[in-house]
Design brief:
There is one protein chain. Helices cover 33% and strands 22% of the residues. α7 packs across α10.
Length: 433
Amino acid sequence: MSIIELKVPVIGESVTEVTLSSWLKEDGAIVELDEIICEFESDKATVEVPAEKAGKLIWVAQEDDDISIDGVYAKIDTSYAGGGDDSSDAAPEEKAPKQEEKKETPKQDQPQKEDSYAAGHPSPTAQKLMQENNLQASDVKATGKDGRITQEDVQQAIDNKGSQKAAEKPAQKEAPKQEKVAPAKAQKSVNMDMPAGFSRSTRTEKMSRMRRTIATRLVSAKNTTAMLTTFNEVDLTEVMALRKKYQEKFVEKYGIKLGFMSLFSKACAKVLMEMPDVNAQIAEDGKTLIFHDYADISIAISTPTGLVVPPVKNVESMNFAQIEASIKALAVKARDGKLTLEEMQGGTFTITNGGVFGSMMSTPIINEPQSAILGMHTIQQRPMAVNGEVKIRPMMYLALSYDHRVIDGSTSVTFLVKVKQLLEDPITLLMDL
């Protein structure tokens, strides 16, 4: 018997521990070289791990276990290499008849894929979505590899469930008269009995590694930085007029819509190049400042497993179409759980848009080791005094949270005013004035 140990590989420079999010092969399964056997979740990404050798898989760690880098999570018995049958310990000569049987009845071999351990198991993203919508594996039709449940499968099940509820509503309204048999008695029972669905039960669920990392970093930012927030408001009349006037031509030429994020990102990048203090960060020694001659702007993206902030690099040198395409590509990868570690690293400044969820005002927390973050909010039509007249304008509150150890109050206010001026007169942004 020859057994080798499988150890957690180095996933990134700052990653010291991972969580075994799911096994894709059952304990004792025969696996081939480079066949994907499990998924690791780090604080930055989910990584699929292949088998280093062919043979019989022996679990060492269980799902949801935390394992340090270079820790053993499984073993492989290579003496089973080439066996191809999970339950077979027979000698080679005993397997010969089975191969002949496969030739005679090829149709019986096809369902074996359905018996894969992956069958009926959701990916981490799909599992999160199922929990949020109270779905079981039996409620979802799996279309992924080896019968695995994908995020798209869960979304389809949610849509189907909504359609069924909509179809059931008319049937419930057909017989309202049946409820009027004893109205007084019914009213009395409602008052005396506990309401239907009333519950005081609780449940415990382990936090995902990403959620734990987010919690740790946010607490660290609050405890270690001298964080303050300054506010302003911006009139988006000209920005909205610009988008309305050129949107069709923009889409026709670039194949993507001109959104608010590219305009805000470009405005921030321009001011960051003029005000390097806002684009700086404190070095690890705590005694020196690192200044950046480029603007890598991290965009906060909400995913089923938590908030991620992958950076769009060199925004100061990109046009609006390139910025929009980069943000869209990162958002799709983030929601599908396919962001690489390289795509998650870096960033000199962050923009978060709580307005898409209806937030009117907030105080965003700094994304360390950066020194500032801009918070966008919902656009509201409000009466404003314009040249002595009251006019209805599309207004947005802006919030800039900053580390007072790096950025002075006057600097933060000036930065926000400059961004406001560029957005209220976007022609100056387009002409780089």
